[in-house]
User: Fold this.
Amino acid sequence: MSKLIVHDQNGNILKERQLDRERIKIGRRADSDIQLDHLSVSGEHALITNIRNDSFLQDLGSTNGVRVNGRLVKNHHLQDGDEINIAIFNLKFQFEPWVMPESSWATTIAKTAKHTATQAAARSDEPLFEIGHDDGLGLTRELLSPRMAPNTLAGEDEATVMDSGTGVLRLMGGHGAGKQLELDKPVLTLGKPGIQTAVIGKKSAGYFLTYVEGISYPLVNGVEVGATPYHLQDHDIIEVAGTRLEFFYK
Assistant:
């Protein structure tokens, strides 16, 4: 899990803060997640949004601004070793990979599998965990044994992959079929909270789809993406919470 190390103007370490929440507020107010007690710091100065292995810094309209590595920024995708300057304080960002815990979705899958097995065993005329079988729980063999979709960046240095431009999502099916949305924000959330959600974030290498919640992983071209961020390719078909979207570069 990534963290921030806060230094004063003399280089002394004042505090360390694990980025253990989705939103970390930085400011002078006492209820800030990281309080910087100095008059040149705004009450609500900056915000860090964490999504799995990605952390995004945002200036909340502060009076004196936010600098990263000496450059004034409004929004910034944090990288290991970045130094955030707020007033007299220096906050060093240390990246540590997010490790997927034994989360509630795994428990839910186990309970669902047990329930479905019991129901199927009681109905001798129905096969157990047949591919495509759906008893209202949406359980299939793939769900019990999630498959990792191939990561197209495997073995490649991310820095060597060229950005292909701005990504676009096109809705496939339903009342809004054909509608398009340009991916012009650092992060876009897809799906339905409490059912299945994922995010699309942009890095220097391109766009990545990352699972957030749900008892099954999103699909790309019919294959579950797993817990590892998936590097989207031109004309990939994404399925999240029953919605199908085509990803492409314009």
